[in-house]
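not sure who needs this but someone in the group chat was asking about RNA polymerase subunit sigma-70 from Micromonospora acroterricola so here u go. i didnt clean anything up, its just raw.
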Amino acid sequence: MLGSASEADDAVQEAWLRLARVDHDTLRNTRAWLTTVVARVCLDMLRSRAARREVALDAPLLSGSPDPEQQALMADSVGLALLVVLDTLTPAERLAFVLHDMFAVPFAEIGSILGRSTPAAKMLASRARRRLRHAQAPEPDVIRQRKVVEAFLAASRKGDFAALLDLLAPDVTARADAPATPAGVPVRLSGADAVAQQALAFAHRARHAHVGLLNGEMAILVTHQGRLAIALTFTIRDEHIATIDIVADPQRLGTNHGAVTH
């Protein structure tokens, strides 16, 4: 639904917190109640993400009989490709498609979650299928980029200095505009050690970040109160991060990246 393990954890935690505040004797079906709550939490999270971004890419052709290792890599790529394509759907389309087609949730229940009629929920899922059917698959470069950026975000969250060094090119540079720094002055760092140390300082914000497409490129996006607050964009060379640009200037974010939709 969200394409992010950490965001999924946040959604489940929020659902459990809400469950703890409810009189269980008033719940006729706890499982259905939790499904509704988790779905609505996910819907809110999807709506708080950056504005929809389109990706126009060529579909790769796979041939031959891959060995088990290749099959595992292919399966992983298909999963990442699906996440990229799902990002082209609206939050309501995505929720209707995932709940019905992947979890067999009835359209009547989906309509209740979305505050729409059953026919409207069916239409959302149908529209999602149509868009997914005609969407072009992302090329391998985009899939590899996403894996590198996701690994960088995961290492930042965990405070894993060694993992960060493995992901960074030795001559990596990181540039941050003034609003992105505590001192309010632009910063430029060079070298894997210095950039990895800075990434560790990003850990408290990384918890509220997710990987997404920004102007057709993989990026780490941090939102606050429904708006894009910080964007980290990357240049990746030979599956290592060569440059990182950190932008927090509201004017630049508003002009170049758009507000988060609701």
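also The beta strands are 168-176, 187-190, 209-214, 217-224, 227-237, 240-247. if thats useful
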